[in-house]
Amino acid sequence: xxxxxxxxxxxxxxxxxxxxxxxxxxxxxxxxxxxxxxxxxxxxxxxxxxxxxxxxxxxxxxxxxxxxxxxxxxxxxxxxxxxxxxxxxxxxxxxxxxxxxxxxxxxxxxxxxxxxxxxxxxxxxxxxxxxxxxxxxxxxxx
Length: 142
Fold this sequence. Notes:
Helix content: 25-40%
Number of helices: 4
Structural class: alpha+beta
Order of helices and strands: HHEEHEEEEEEH
Strand order of the largest sheet: 2-1-8-7-4-3
């Protein structure tokens, strides 16, 4: 697939995320797909590797959105950088422990690196600023 085709596929992924279109998000998975949330060292593999992390995120932040600020494609790879936003409405089982819903708004910087094959995500590495997210949800409670 071309650079532009792969870039368009990842734009479609974020459009589906913002619309909470679980069927479209699930369609990015393949039997050999892998997902890694780098800050959590959380790994998912297989057909549900793409949808399950997003479903978990939506359980924590039901109104979650992703504003992609830059996106670049090079052959099978696409890198997207942006800001994730949402309201903390669900229990967050984080590396720092269980965080009960706070009702607080959050913003978190992210950088996602994708490798695609035939329009499917073979590998996704998601990097985001967990410390700032944790601080926003817990440490600023004073």
